[in-house]
Amino acid sequence: MSMRWLKDYLGVTIGVILTAVGLDAFLVPNKIAAGGVSGIATILHYVIHVPVGAAMLVLNVPLFIGATLRLGWHYAVRSLYGTLTLSFFIDFLEPYIPALTDNLLLASLYGGVLSGLGLGLVFRHKGTTGGTDLAAAIVRSFVGINIGQLLFLIDSTVVAAAWITFDSAELALYALITIFVTAWVIDLVQEGFSYAKAFIIITDKADQISQEIIKQLDRGATAWKARGMYTGQEKEVLLSVVGRTEVTRLKEIVRETDPQAFIILGDVHEVLGEGFKQLQGSK
Prior knowledge:
single chain, alpha+beta, Alpha-Beta Plaits, 2 domains, 4-stranded antiparallel beta sheet, elongated, N-reg_PII/ATP_PRibTrfase_C, transmembrane helix
């Protein structure tokens, strides 16, 4: 238990350092206010000349108070470590990290990648950095709308404020690029790269196809009964997960066995079990 606790705190710490580097090296020097509390702090940094980390810390104080009163102390405390360390490292590292580029496209892309990597690690290790996550949770407790929509609304408002403050539509557009890149990388860190494919096969020849999958690919398949609502006919549905290199061969198996089969193919980010990654604790 203690090792797991240590691993989580180490992961959160590495995550906030990466996020701080992304802000110090790319986003803040180029006035890219990519939404959230960091975006507001970037605007304040240029308007009233306060350190970004300190501004983020001050902005988070009312959010912590509101989260504690509205959602309970345990919800706010969960964000405390990530928030404090992120604010600290942004200001601590700032004198030692020069702006690595003044190209706005490069800054928005690399700043988004580093921020996404950092925040993805923080979330993966059960931490948060407060900010708009807390704000969205508080607002949602009153109005009950989707948190994703609230975060988008908050980020859009910050980007609009940066547009007005810096009098630059171009900076606002680059900030939107950073927001999308950050969100994509966060998902990538949490879910991982897609390394397998899931086939859902609707067919009249489930037994034959499953036997060929077992024989030719050494993979398993699961079948269940289904009924087409348009035709009313009974069919079987097969589910089989294969590696990327086996996708073409499985398509050929289905086409050769049942040309009328209906195939749905999707990405799989993690597979636990025989033939793939072993379940934790298994030999």
